[in-house]
Amino acid sequence: MREGRQKLENRVRELRVAIQERFLALKTPLEKTPERGCPVSKQDTMESMTNGKVRAFVFDLDGTLIDSKTDLVNSVNAMLRETRRAHLPADLIASYVGHGAPQLIARTLGSAASDEERREALKIFLKHYQVKKLEETRPYPGVVEGLHELRTRPLAVLSNKPAKLSAEILDGLGLAWFFRGVYGGDSFERKKPDPSGALAILKEFGVPPEEAAMVGDSDVDVQTARNAGMLAVGVRYGFGQHDPQMTPADLYVEDLTELAGLT
User: Fold this and answer.
1) Considering 44, 60, 115, 186, which one is annotated as catalytic?
2) What is the CATH number of the domain that holds 209?
3) Whether 258 and 197 share a structural domain
4) Tens of pLDDT along 179-233?
5) Which backbone phi and psi does 86 adopt, to 5 degrees?
6) Number of domains comprising the chain
7) For this structure, is 60 an active site residue?
8) 217 plus 92 within the same structural domain
9) Cβ of 165: how many Cβ atoms within 10 Å?
10) Whether the Cβ atoms of residue 215 and residue 58 lie closer than 8 Å to each other
11) Rounded to whole angstroms, what are the CA distances from 121 to 77, 83, 114, 116?
12) d(CA 211, CA 68)
C-alpha cells in the first residue's frame, strides 16, 4: 500500500515538473494581478497550494466522471428527427456539450432558429434524454477506484447540465454516495466558468479555494478553476473541447486514481 502511494506521489511530482517545463518552453505570458500589477505565472498558481495538499475536489460530470457521449448524441438526434431536421454527426454534437442544455440546443439548431424554436427543441431534447440518459452512459475507467480512494475528502459534482438529471445519473450508476453535493447549471445564478458555484460549494465545505481542485475535461472546467483560484486538474480523456495550448491545466491525469497523490 505504501509503495503504491509512493508511486502515485512520484507520478504527480513528474506531472508537475512536466507542466512547469512546458510553460517555460511555451514562454507562457505572465499575468498581471490587478492589485499590485506584479507578474504572476501559471507555475505560481500551482505553488500556492499548501504544501501541494488538496483537501477538497469538485468534479465536472460529462466527459470526466461519466462517458455520456452516446446518450447525449442520440437524444439530440431524436430531437432533430422529431422536429424534422437532419441528423448531425456525433463528434459535432459532442463538441457542443459543456455549457448547459440550452446552449447545446442553440448551437445544434444554429443561428437561424427562433427563440421559440429553441425553447421547444430544448423541451423535446430533455424529454428524450430523460429516457435515454442511462442507456449507454458508464463511468470512465478508474473513476470508481479513484473516488473510493478520495472518499474521506469532501467531494462534489458541478455540472452545467440540470442538477436533477445529474443526480439521477449518478444515482443510477451507483456513484451518488461518494459526493456531499451534486450541483447543476440550474443550481446557481450563473453557470461555469463563472466561479460562483464552485466558491459556494467550497464555502459549504469550509475549504479555501487554494486548498481545492477542480477536475474536468474541458476549457470550461479549467477556466472555472482559474476564476475560483483553485488548482486546475485536466483529465486526458473525455469529449469536452479543450485546447491545452491556450487553456492549460495545472496538471493532467490519465485517470482519477492519480488524484490521491495530491492529498
Assistant:
1) 60
2) 3.40.50.1000
3) yes
4) 999 999 999 999 999 999 999 999 999 999 999 999 999 999 999 999 999 999 9
5) -75, 145
6) 2
7) yes
8) no
9) 20
10) yes
11) 11, 8, 10, 8
12) 29
